[in-house]
Amino acid sequence: MEKILIVDDEAFIRENLERILAEDGFRPFSTGSSEEAVRLVGEEEIDLVLLDLNLGARSGLDVLRELREVDPEVLVIIITGYGTVESAVEALKLGAYDYIKKPFKADAIHLIVRLALETQNLRREVRHLKREGGGQLASNEMIGSSPQLLQVFRQLQEVAKHENATVLITGESGTGKELVARAIHNLSPRKDRPFVEINCGSLPFNLLETELFGHERGAFTDAKTRKIGLIEESNGGTVFLDEIGEMDLNLQVKLLRVLEDRKIRRLGGVRNLDIDVRVIAATNRDLKQAIEEKVFREDLFYRLNVFPIHVPPLRDRREDIAHLLDFFLKRFSREFNKKMRDVSRPALDLLMRYHWPGNVRELRNVVERICIMHNSEIITPEMLPGEIWGDAPRRDAPFSFEIPPEGILLEEMVNEVEKELIAKALQITGGNVAKTSRLLNVPRGTLRYKLEKYDLSGDE
After folding, report:
1. What is the DSSP string of 399-440?
2. Is it true that domain 410-453 has CATH number 1.10.10.60?
3. What kind of architecture, by CATH, is found in domain 3-122?
4. 315-389 fold
5. pTM beyond cutoff 0.90
6. Which of 137, 228, 304, 335 could be disulfide-bonded to 168 (CB atoms 3.0-4.6 Å)?
7. In 14-159, which ranges are E strands?
C-alpha cells in the first residue's frame, strides 16, 4: 500500500485529501508542520508528498528542498491557492513532480496521484533493471528520468525476457533506436550470442541481399568464395535491421519468409538452413503511410510489429536534457582532457528551449564540439551554435534587399526591422530584459528606451 503524506496548514484541506486518498486504497499521513513532514519522510518511506506552497511563516519551496535532501527520490506535488507561474516553475526546477491549484476537484487529485505513483514505480523498476542488468542501460546514452523514457525502459525490460519476440522500434533519427535494440539484446537470454547490425538504407538491393543472406561460390560473376550472411552469422543471437523502411520490396519478401519459416537460403544455394535469431527492426518512417504508397509490404509490417516500441523525440522529454548534458560533459571532458564541468543558467535556458531536430545525437555533437573548441569550466551562451540562439543570421552574412522603383521610407523600414529583431530576441529570452540586452549587444538602458518606443514589454 503506497504511503502519501499531506502537508497543509489548513485542517479541512488535510481531512478532505485524506478521505480522497483513502478511497483509492492509499495510506495517508497528514501534518501541518514542516518539521513533522521532514521527519515522516525520513522515517516512513513515503512514496508521494502533497505539499502546500504556503505553510504559515514557512515557504513550501524551502520545505521541498529539505524533503529532497532527506529523500532525493520522493515525488512531491505542490498544492497552493496563491500560486503564480513563477512559483510553479521554481517548484518544478527544485524537483517537484507537478503543480495543482486550490480549489481542486477530487477527480483531479485521483488522476495526478495515480500518474505520479506510476512514474515512481517506473523509476524504481529502472533502478532495479540497471542493477540486475549489470549496468547495460547506464553505460550508454539512454539517460534520463522522464515518464516517456521510463516507459521505454519498462517495455524493453519486458520484451527482453521473451527471446523470440520480434520488435519494431520507431522514432525520429537520433533518438537512440539502436541503443534500445542493444539494451534488449544485452538483457535477454541471448546476451552471450552475437548482436549483428545492418543499415538497410545504406546498400543497394543486390549488395544488401548478399550481406543478409550470403552466397555460395559461383552464385554470380564475382562470387569466388562462399560468403556467410549476417542473418546466419547472428544465429543464436539478435539481428538488428536499422532503417527497415528503406528495404527494397523484393528483399522484403525474402525477409518475410525468414520470419515465418525461420529458415534462410544463401544466394546460389540449393538447401534451406535453419536459423534461431531474434529480429529487431527500426525505422524513422511512417510504415503505415509507406504501405499506402505501395513501398512497404503490409504482411511484413504485421510480422515485424509484434512488440512495438516508440522512442520519443528529445523535444518531448526536455526534462532529460540536463541529465544528458551532464553525461556528455563528463564523457568528453575526460576524453579531451578538459575541465568543462557545468552549464551556465542562461546557456541551459537556451538548450532547454531549442527544438532539437537531431535529437540526442545533435545534443551529443554540440557538447563534443564545445569541449573540443573551449577550455573553460562552464558552458556559456556564446559557445552555443547559432541555431540554438534561434536561427539568428551570421554577423558576417551580407544583408540583401531590393529597393523598388518608387523608393522606400528608410527610417520607417529601419524601425520595423529593429522592432522585429527586438521582439524575436525577447521571445528567445522569455522576455528577460537583461538577457535580451546581452543577446542584442545593446546597453540595458538603450533597450528599455526601444521597448517603450515600440510598445514592447519585458521583465527585469
Report:
1. P--PPPTT---HHHHHHHHHHHHHHHHHHHTTTBHHHHHHHH
2. yes
3. 3-Layer(aba) Sandwich (3.40)
4. Helicase, Ruva Protein; domain 3 (1.10.8)
5. no
6. 304
7. 27-31, 48-52, 54-55, 58-59, 75-80, 98-101
